[in-house]
Amino acid sequence: MRAKPGARYVETGGQHRMDWQRDAACADAADPDLFFPISLHGPGADQVEQARRVCRRCPVAAQCAEWARETHQGAGVWGGMAMEASGGGRQ
Fold it and tell me: Which residue ranges make up each domain of the chain?
């Protein structure tokens, strides 16, 4: 998924490590908020599943999930992983 403005990123050897985003399936998503549900439970669970459907067809889902773990993203659906406030991913 595309990072919201102000998201942290990691640079390695001068190369921007978020360049995978240009190939992300979510780059064409009508509503970026789909990937940031208010909760992972109740109605938010349906939103998480909708976001995961986009991730399942994404060619860079693995890079997205890895970036989210490396940068400790605490919220959102990244590469099909739902991040909880604890900073971990949930399948």
Answer: 11-90
